[in-house]
Design goal:
The chain is α/β, with parallel strands linked by helices. The protein is built from six helices and eight strands, in the order βββαβααβαββαβα. The chain has a single domain, classed as Rossmann fold. The chain has an eight-stranded mixed beta sheet with strand order 1-2-4-3-5-6-7-8, sandwiched between helices. The protein is globular and about 45 Å long.
Length: 244
């Protein structure tokens, strides 16, 4: 039985009552949560394979908003079906072909325009998980409008030296026990960034943590993992606060 490359156990998940609301932006639906005071700072959250409606991702959106950012998670799958825990792993490569995390530029532009024109955002950061972590890595190479990025356990794609010339500060978060990303790959990423990257970057590996660890809601956390999950989230927010 081959371990599924992106997925983590979504079985024992608690229900979550969201604090934000849904909006339609051009061809995209999105989930938005605003802080209790007005601000010109915003964060885009890029969901994982489970899509923009998954309760863990909405929890993260609300969490970031509580730190003073207009936070938005658009449907980067554009209305197509997200992966679900009951889908069969053999179909995953085909599903991925139609859900390429490197093809998110148009959606990102639509959301950036909305944040600037409708929400008055002047500084905009981006955070992404797993599939979304890959999308963030891509966008931080391509879109100078994104002031800072946090990529959480996005599989590392090695296709060219161009993968390391980040435009703005980017933080890469990994779990030590992630079966989809080897420590060798992480060391290589660090090596290449040292060579090619001209902006601040950071890589951090959290002990004993598996793929998907950072988006668990508090009541779904195991006691041993809790300190690392909380640390990763604090680190994510601190990075955003430093640059956005």
């Amino acid at each position: 039985q081959m371990a599924d490359p992106f997925l983590y156990d979504t079985g024992e998940r608690s229900h979550y009552g969201c604090l934000g609301h849904e909006v339609q932006i051009e061809h995209l639906k999105a989930y938005v949560c605003r802080p209790s005071f007005s601000t010109d700072k915003a964060v885009i959250v890029v969901h994982d394979v489970f899509g923009w409606q998954f309760s863990d991702i909405r929890y993260i959106v609300d969490l970031i908003a509580s730190h003073g950012y207009i936070t938005i998670c658009p449907d980067f799958f554009k209305g197509t079906k997200p992966w679900t825990p009951t889908d069969h792993w053999v179909d995953f490569p085909d599903w991925m072909k139609n859900h390429d995390p490197m093809k998110v530029d148009k959606e990102a532009d639509v959301v950036l325009k909305y944040l600037k024109e409708q929400c008055g955002a002047k500084k905009i950061g981006i955070v992404g998980f797993s599939w979304g972590g890959m999308a963030v890595h891509h966008l931080m190479l391509k879109n100078p409008q994104l002031t800072a990025g946090v990529s959480l356990y996005g599989r590392i794609i090695r296709d060219s030296e161009e993968r390391y010339r980040l435009l703005n500060p980017t933080f890469f978060i990994f779990g030590e026990k992630d079966h989809t990303i080897s420590l060798d790959q992480i060391f290589l990423l660090e090596d290449k960034l040292k060579q090619y990257c001209k902006v601040p970057y950071k890589i951090k590996v959290y002990p004993g943590q598996v793929h998907g660890f950072a988006q668990l809601k508090p009541e779904d956390m195991k006691p041993d993992d809790k300190p690392y999950i909380e640390e990763a989230r604090r680190d994510m927010i601190d990075w955003i606060k430093m640059f956005v």
